[in-house]
Amino acid sequence: MHTPNIMRIMRRAASVMIAAVMLVAPCVSAVADETGVPLDAAHFPDEEFRTLLKEYDFDGDDVFSQEELYQIDTIVSFEDNIKSVQGIEYFPVLRDLNIRRNQISSIDVSHNPKLEYLIIGGNQLTSLDVSHNPALKMLNASRNQLTSIDLSQNTALKELHLSNNQLASLDLTHNTKLKEIYARNNALTELDLALLPALEYVYLSNNQLTSVGLGSNSALIDIELDGNRLTSVDVSGLTAMDYLNLNNNLLTSLDVSKNAALTWLDTEGNQLTSVEVSHNEKLLELFAKKNRLLWLSDFANPEQEHDIDLAEQLYGPVAGTTLNLTKTAPGIDVTRISNVQGGTLDGDALTATNPDGLVTYDYQFNGKADPLHAQMQFDMQPLPDDSDDPDDPDQSDTPDDPDQADKPGGDTQPSDPASAGKPSEPSKPANGSNVSGIRWQMARTDSSILMIAAIAVALLTAGTAVFAGL
Fold first, then answer.
1. Comparing C-alpha atoms, which of 336, 341, 397, 383 is closest to residue 364?
2. DSSP H/E element including 287
3. Could you tell me the pTM of the whole model?
4. 202 Cβ neighbours under 8 A, 6+ residues apart
5. Which residues fall in a compositionally biased region of kind Acidic residues (predicted)?
6. pLDDT by residue (tens digit) across 442-457?
């Protein structure tokens, strides 16, 4: 074999080895060597984190051996003032990382592919990457400063806690195994949960939701949607739903007739004119205060003791003085109305008679139960009729008093003594009246001329006096 050939082969082998080293180099920092990983500042920069990890150094030699690194599958810290968990990448079989209520502003768990439980709530995170954690079953990142999060790679996720962040959107379409969602106090405007068949608990209070898709999730038990901007919500497919909280939204109607398992319903602070619960045999608690209720159905189980709050109802403002109840609130039974105050009831027409326009009545439901106390506020303004038609030729702009014709201000005597001698301001014309408008402009012109003339006379008089003095 010739020497040049040997040299050529050696150079080629060296090139291959260098290339291999370059490929492996990025992973070296996340892999311990055969002697283990020293428990020092070079590998674990945060002092509080090093102090915590001493509990996991089983032989106390300040070095994590290979054997120790592969034994540690759980790390727990609670309020230990940890600012960084750099070094977490050295634990390849870590399954459970619980470091809540610390001062962590960033975290890299991309080298922990076996991670199933990540609890990092109550820190200072502005971003979180869990795209390299496909085994993740539970994520708790509540009480941080997250504005977005990508969960598309976490298809094993079953429990999600993201409350008290700044999330404006959330895509859960890939998380079909989800059972529990906690995302209270964010800025979500819409959310689609229709394709999550395993979902049981949904807590989305105090967002900005205008729509939420619930679909036919037959496993759903508890739903909290209070403190949002919902004008409607469809719960007809939620046959197992036991608890529904919709208080402080913008609902004008609600259908719970298909929710036979419902025991607890809160609709406080909406714009409902009625609540129909005659199909909900298991319903025990109903909170519907601060709505616009005009009637309430009997309960399906009237003999059962119920916890009911229907206080502070106010419907209005109602234009005019009369309200047709059956048109306004379909389903109402006017024969159940009694104790009308501030007005009269004639058939289905409720008419206000008090000057303040407030009318109240009691609406009986459930037989012996305390009645619903309904209130309506009428504005007491006359409604337009044919006599007020501006196209009617009899409706002229001519003043009723002929002596007032062409007088710009009616009575020209000033009420203020200090204004004596000053021309009065002419009254403005009615809207849409060209004749009156012209008359008003002429009056303003006449008044201006009179004022200019008065000023001129005053100046002339003053000038004469000055010359006389000379």
1. 336
2. strand 285-287
3. 0.75
4. 181, 193, 214, 220, 222, 223, 224, 225
5. 385-403
6. 344 444 444 555 555 4
